[in-house]
Amino acid sequence: MKRPRQDKECKNEIDSARNFRTKIPNIVHKLVSSCTKEGCFDHVSAEPIPYREAMIDILRRLALVLYPGYFVKMRLDQNNLEYYLGQQITSLYEILSEQIILAIRHDCIRQNKPCVNCEDLGHKIMVAFLSGLPDLRELLAKDIRAAYDGDPAAKGYDEVIFSYPGPWAITVYRIAHKLHRSKVPLIPRIMTEYAHGRTGIDIHPGAEIGESFFIDHGTGVVIGETASIGKRVRIYQGVTLGALSLSKEDCQRLRNKKRHPSIGDDVIIYANATILGGETVIGDRSVIGGNVWITHSVPPDTEVFIEKQDLIFGEKKFKAQAVKKGFK
To answer: Could you say which of 2.160.10.10, 3.40.190.10, 3.40.50.970, 3.40.50.1370 is the CATH number of the domain covering 207-306?
Structure first.
């Protein structure tokens, strides 16, 4: 049984908590008022915007279509494949077309653009996107083969599809790139940033990348919006294909101009190389060594490496002292 003093303490705590809760309406009022101020960001509107979690679900569903049988528990064979793909494509059509329409409508309202009949345009883009999936599957198959051919540690194509971060980031990029080329706002960048968070590989959906592209390991790779990459290119972790640092004024002036390098066919770029600038061109079949910094063009069939540094070997003093004192 509680003593009277304990009962009084409990009552005081309840009253104190109630007093703190009375401050909540004023906090909410200030938050609502902040939504009308310039300089703060919000989307308080009757029109919804694309939903990030829906983008993640769409990518998962697209993986089921682009790599049938790999990411699903059920058994697929010739008897149920058409039914399975029919279900997946129908669901994709409904979900992605809705998000595309929301993105187009939001962009029109936010930018005060003339009406583009977002409903019709969204469905038209969606039909074109789905119609291109067979070609996209063939393009991705070349990327998977490039990963297997370029990595002696790979035991097979299945391992590459299931576990390699590079091919997954490239898959998301190629999906987003198709939508980007159809001028779908917001959605392509949401997709590639999701892949960036999952793999550590940052590929802007506006980049132009040829077939049989392979990113080995991948963490820290950055490929900018206006970068151009040829066929059969291989790059390693930490590679940056970026833009030179710009002032605020230059950023506005070059916003829709080429700012990132062009990489020719059959180029290899080793770990942590940095290649910058829209006028920088790496010629076909060149090899760029690790840790180099390039801001000028490189001719075809060229090797670029940092001069070999001398290694200095010295006695580890702590170990020598420990042995003398009888430690191991």
So the answer is: 2.160.10.10
